[in-house]
Amino acid sequence: MELFGAEVIASPSEFTDAGRKVLSIDPSSPGSLGIAISEAVEQAAQSEDTNYSLGSVLNHVLLHQTIIGEEAKLQFAKTDDYPDIVIGCVGGGSNFAGLSFSFLRDVLNGSRNNTEVIAVEPSSCPTLTKGEFVYDFGDEAGLTPLLKMYSLGSKFIPPAIHAGGLRYHGASPIVSELCSKGFIKAEAYNQQEVFEAARIFSRTEGILPAPESSHAIKSAIQNALLCRESGTAKTILFNLSGHGFLDLSAYESFLQGNLQEQEISLHKVV
């Protein structure tokens, strides 16, 4: 971003460029997407020529991303096939929704009844699997509107895992509603097993996946093994949403045995 002329300030930042303290957050904190959103909103509020649009959890973003699922359906039509299982990783939800919503539409209108849709998240930030379905803020400082979603609490700061894009306390209201109604299933894995799945995928396919995408890969492998054990043939679709070339330091930590899992403490969302 800096090569293209942007000024990049790591979050949580202690000061704005005007020298004024932004948030009472320890700069050594691992931060969270919620904190970064608060800082971005505050920065936009200070500038007359700047506006901020909340990103991946909002409805319009998810619906925009469904071009991914629409293209996937066209590819399946060319092979006269249809997925029995659809899998995507979840932070806020746009990645997952982009692939799955086109197939969920068929499930909801009754044209497909046997397609299972799985949302996969890190066990260190288990929003859908351990969060509460409540109204909560989308950011740490409470500057955004309240959203009805699964949440770990807007003050929740997840451990500094390498799948940074999945470190968000909340989930999309649409994804949350689908999960609460049982239309999608949520799973959570720790980063050690996720990176092991990435290694298997790299050696099998010759593609180095992003840590975020490797959560979906882990679930795909698990479901493929279940099919083998039961002798059942199923078509599994997952979203390989990014490559891992920007995450080589994470893979180095994994290969050297330095990946650490941290216990998380969950509190009731107020």
Describe the fold and architecture:
With 270 residues, the chain is of the alpha/beta class. It has one domain: Rossmann fold. The chain contains nine helices and six strands; from the N terminus they run αααβαβαββαβααβα. The strands form two sheets. Strands 5-2-1-6 form a four-stranded parallel beta sheet, with helices on both faces. A two-stranded antiparallel sheet has the order 3-4. Strand 3 and strand 4 (146-151) form a beta hairpin. The protein is globular, with a radius of gyration of 19 Å. It starts with 32 loop residues before the first helix and ends in a 15-residue tail after the last helix.
Q: What is the arithmetic mean of pLDDT?
A: 90
The major beta sheet can be summarized as: 4 strands, parallel
How many distinct helices? 9
Helix share, percent = 25-40%
Strand content: 5-15%
Highest-level CATH class: Alpha Beta
What is the N-to-C order of secondary-structure elements (H for helix, E for strand)? HHHEHEHEEHEHHEH
Rg, please?
Answer: 19 Å
- Which regions contain 5 or more consecutive residues with pLDDT less than 50? 19-23
Question: Which CATH-level-2 architecture?
Answer: 3-Layer(aba) Sandwich
Number of strands: 6
Overall number of domains: 1
Quaternary class: single chain
Describe the strand arrangement of the main beta sheet, using strand numbers: 5-2-1-6
Here the CATH topology equals Rossmann fold
Kindly report how far apart the N and C termini lie.
37 Å
Structural class: alpha/beta
| Coarse morphology | globular
